[in-house]
Amino acid sequence: MKGTVLVTAVGSFSAAAVIETCKAEGYRVIGCDIYPPEWIAASLETDRFFQAPYATDGAHYLEFLEKICAENQIDFLLPLTDVEIDVIDRWRSRARALGVTLCMSGEAAIGLCRDKQKLAQYLKPLRICPVIPGRSLSQVLSEAEAGGFEPLAYPLVLKPFRGRSSQGLRIIENVRQMQRAGEDLRGEAAHYLVQPKIPGPVVTVDVVRDADHGRTVCLPRRELLRTFNGAGTSVYVFRDPLLEKQCAALAEALDIRGCVNFEFIEKTETERYLLECNPRFSGGAAFSRMAGYDMVKNHLRCFAGGEIEPAGEIKNQYLVKRYTEFCTKIED
Description:
Blueprint: E1 3-7, H1 15-24, E2 27-33, E3 48-51, H2 58-71, E4 76-78, H3 82-88, H4 92-98, E5 101-102, H5 107-113, H6 116-123, E6 135-136, H7 137-147, E7 156-160, E8 170-172, H8 175-185, E9 192-196, E10 202-210, E11 215-226, E12 232-237, H9 241-254, E13 258-268, E14 271-278, H10 285-291, H11 295-303, E15 317-320
Parallel strand pairs: 1-2, 1-4, 2-3, 4-5
Antiparallel strand pairs: 6-9, 7-8, 7-9, 10-11, 10-13, 11-12, 12-15, 13-14
């Protein structure tokens, strides 16, 4: 046994692939989620499961983590959702005291990745790749008081600086919709970003960076069908040397540790605009494993003292997700 891993949010899209790989690599897996185990198929695959409080209740959630880690001799913590990462990012010193390795990037990288405006401002002068321009909604509203909303170039996208899974995102097609959004969001305007809406599919790139050994592996996929909250269900995995080089440079510039995913809007196959960096496994991490590279296994190696594998030969391919029914409990 290599140790014990605590995997959070085992009801999330990436959880099944994460748990399966951890167990295949010889780790004991403890799982948790805000829902009871009977509601979550992946709970059946864990060695032990705990129902967790909401991570938005930060103090209560961290008390829960400390108890679980101490009582189950947790060696590695793998958070799977942004809201958990936000809270756990503030728990680093206590995790070290408990002997728990947080399998996520450092504090500075998390701070940039979780704030879309700061990320764009940081990356723009580096000229690694095109970044979608944006302004705060408060700035747009201030300018509109003098000149109105008519000069804006529609369509536009409004989204929270620290949003996740498309929550709070609005597509603004015209002046009337912009006026309504300004009224609805005036109290939150300082926390919203306004960007031009660029047409095209989303390209997600799973990226794992082994900073200690100087190796980064990138695997892109074009998302053909997505859920409402942005998880790909039908994808085309492909290789693109320029895009992979850009993502490796982005990972180095941000000092990424382990696996993250970059999302781009693909205007053309040679013109892609960076949307964001999610400092966790993508919902489609299983697609990369199916295509020939296990991001979860190599993410663990980054934190367990190993060296990540080279990408090897990966062919362009279409991959799809399907849903399967499970019985989690039969009552008398």
